[in-house]
From TrEMBL:
Alphabetical keyword list: ATP-binding, Kinase, Nucleotide-binding, Serine/threonine-protein kinase, Transferase
Catalytic activity field: L-threonyl-[protein] + ATP = O-phospho-L-threonyl-[protein] + ADP + H(+); L-seryl-[protein] + ATP = O-phospho-L-seryl-[protein] + ADP + H(+)
Family statement: Belongs to the protein kinase superfamily. NEK Ser/Thr protein kinase family. NIMA subfamily.
EC assignment: 2.7.11.1
The organism's taxonomic lineage, starting at the top: Eukaryota, Metazoa, Ecdysozoa, Arthropoda, Hexapoda
Pfam families assigned to the protein according to its UniProt record, in alphabetical order: Pkinase (PF00069)
PANTHER family: CAMK FAMILY PROTEIN KINASE (PTHR44899), SERINE_THREONINE-PROTEIN KINASE NEK1 (PTHR44899:SF3)
Gene3D superfamilies: Transferase(Phosphotransferase) domain 1
Binding site for ATP: K38
GO terms, molecular function: ATP binding; protein serine/threonine kinase activity
UniProt-recorded name of the protein: non-specific serine/threonine protein kinase
Amino acid sequence: MCENYKVVSKIGQGGFGKVFLVQNSRKENLVIKSIPLKEFTHYVNNELEILKTLDHPRVIKFIEFFASQKDYNFVMEYAENGTLRTLINRYQESRWRLTKNDLAEIFMDIAYGLRFLHSKNIIHRDVKPENILMTLDYRVKLADFGISKIVGDSYAQAHTSIGSLVYMSPEVYLHLPYDKKCDIWALGLIFYEMAMMKHPFSKSERARILNPLLTYQCPKVDWIGRKYDPNYQQALEMMLQRDPEKRKDINIICAFPLFDRMFSFLENECALYELKKKIDAARNLGRN
Ligand SMILES: Nc1ncnc2c1ncn2[C@@H]1O[C@H](COP(=O)(O)OP(=O)(O)OP(=O)(O)O)[C@@H](O)[C@H]1O
Ligand SMILES: [Mg+2]
């Protein structure tokens, strides 16, 4: 693949390509997402430069890009504990529910990562549990943002996996103009899925949602049996609006009283992260 990285194992296969766990020369674990070159039609240098500058505790860090003979390769940070999909599946199998606190914590980690991307004017475009990775201490990091922009819309559409279709907002599905609000739709679906441990819409309901002539009603979170707060329904309704204009912006969602406590915790944590980066940079300057 590349002499700088030693492949340890293959850990995944998605619509775009294969994912490998690798080690660099310092024996650090990293991940390479490999996309077959022959199908690769579009390459935006600019976008790669933007990805490299994104450094945030709730997003997977993009490290470098290189082209080998047959593939284009994206090197990134490794998240050790699988994906949110694995976690949801485990809970479903065991018929467990997330506690109110666990739900708020995981949800806010996702929302906070998304808030960062949106603040940089990056639309994720493929928010789904498979792209929400978990670290050793079960903190969340968003993955796979920007890739669809780098590989180009037509490539992305041709390789959209079924998994992505389920989280696709009505406007993206219908090829209408879209903006950051398409990520909010997926965020709402994930919120519902974590609360109820099932997807809110069946196949036929999805078809109904896509028909603008038919009425749409936001699904209901059954909070009573699950000891959740009635405000959970209000939170859901900020996100799962069919009309993107009616969906709330990520800043409004993060400021919702239900998530207040988590939001201030994340703000503090992020400030500490920035401080640590500055101290590390100063130390490195001192060394040189
Ligand atoms: N940085 C990473 N750290 C750990 N595991 C990862 C990482 N990136 C991807 N994976 C694993 O590899 C799997 C496949 O990733 P990939 O992004 O190719 O496919 P996907 O997310 O299932 O679908 P899509 O191609 O639509 O993104 C993921 O679901 C995840 O389990
Ligand atoms: Mg992915």
